[in-house]
Structures are given as C-alpha cells and as structure tokens.
Amino acid sequence: MPIKRITDEPAFVLHRYDWSESSLILEVFTRGFGRIALIARGAKKPSSSFRPILLPMQPLHLAFGGDAEIRNLKSAEWQGGHVMPTGDALLSGYYLNELLMRLLARDDAHPALFDAYAATVQLLASPHPSMLEVALRAFELRLLRDIGLLPDLNLQTATLMTLEPDTAYVLLPEAGLREAHDDDRASLNGAQWQALQAALDSTAPFTETMQACVNCLPELKNQLRGLLHHHCDVKVLKTRQMMMDLQAL
Questions:
Q1: Which one of 3.40.50.300, 2.40.30.10, 2.40.50.140, 1.10.10.10 gives the CATH number of domain 5-78?
Q2: How far apart are alpha carbons 11 and 35 in whole angstroms?
Q3: Among 117, 9, 146, which residue's Cα sits nearest to residue 71?
Q4: Fewest CB atoms within 10 Å of the CB: 3, 144, 179, 233?
Q5: Are 165 and 190 spatial neighbours (Cβ–Cβ below 8 Å)?
Q6: For residues 80 and 38, is the Cβ–Cβ distance under 8 A?
Q7: Distance from CA of residue 233 to its chain's centroid?
Q8: Nearest Cα residue to 14 out of 85, 100, 117
Q9: Which of 129, 7, 138 is nearest to 65 (CA)?
Q10: Do residues 151 and 177 touch, judged by C-beta distance below 8 A?
Q11: pTM higher than 0.85 for the full model?
Q12: Higher per-residue pLDDT: 25 or 5
C-alpha cells in the first residue's frame, strides 16, 4: 500500500524527546488527526530548518507521512501570529500541554478543542494578563467535555433532576454534580452551572465559554482541579507544582 502523506496540517508541538544524536520525536496536536507522534530527522543539527520552528505554543503547518505509530515529519512551516509567551503565561501554556499529553488518546481528532487551544495560546501571548485565568478555566471545561469526562451541567448526575438556579452544587470526580453540603469548600449555583453548559453547547466562538467563566473563577478552579487530578491520576500536575515552587521562592 502507498504511504499516506498529509500536507498543510495545522498543528502545535506539545512535547519533544531526544531520539538520536541528531533527531527528535515530537508529540504534536493536530486539528484533523488529534495527538500524534512524529520523527523529526536531523532536527537537532545546527543547519536544520526544523531547529528554530519546532517550538511549543507556536502555530505550525506540517507535512508528514507513514503508516506506523510514529510517522515521519517531512516539513514544518511557522504560521506566525504571536510570539512565545513568557513568565506565568509560559508556565500556563506548558500546563495546557501537560493536560493534553495526559488526557488525549492518540489519533483521536477534536477540531473544536484544537481551535480552543489555538485561541488560548494566542491569549497567553497577548498583553492582557487578566484574561489568563479565564482562558485556562474555559479550556479545561472544553477539554473535559470533548473527551467525555464532564457530566451534563444542567442536571444532578445521580438523580437526573434539573438544577435549581439558586441552589449550590459541587462537581465531584466520581459522583458528578450534586447539591453542596455545609462542609464543601467551593460551589457554584445552578444558574452558573447551566450557563457553563449553554456556552459549551453553543456554536459560538470559544470566547463565549470564557465569558461564562468570568463571574465564577475561584470556585470553578477548585471544582475543575479535583476532576482533572482524578482523571490524570496525580495529586498535583508537574507544571502546577513548578508554579507553586516558583511562587515560594
């Protein structure tokens, strides 16, 4: 069978590993094929055209081929549009990449999630730090929903009863949405959960999901952190631990 070659595929590099003295294995998030692995032969050579291009959080168009689990990178073109994030924004970008590496199966396309990722990393590079937390929460929601790990936010999970707008509810890793108890540290009311669900269901741009997160950021962060750590099977993600270590200096 002829080896299938893909060209002009929108993509971002999530992670890279040494493969030999001169080559790299890349974990790449593509719009049409999801997370895939590529061999970038000779990418570590000083003369390689890949060397200044294969960077995280940079929009690329890739050409690759092969029918093995790890395919061969043929070409890469930087699409421009924004510079590399710095400081907290850079760490936040690595945090997004860690989530995708841990939670996305290979060769499982999520075009809407790709678009949300592209919008988020562009915001990370913008001079608007106040939008950083909003973008992260909105992306976490989109990721969990698109890979099937987020329950319906219109209903109590166990009873399938509709949420009451003024009643507080919490999101638990193994129980879904339930009414909050007195000892629950953070919660959102039914109207807030339903607004988040409506934004996720909308065909409007990713900014609508961000808008739904604006008025509940601290509580939503707490709710989503427990769910993400549970499904990533960690107590603390590596990038989050790095953030805490730097803040403690």
A1: 2.40.50.140
A2: 9
A3: 9
A4: 233
A5: yes
A6: no
A7: 17
A8: 100
A9: 7
A10: yes
A11: yes
A12: 25
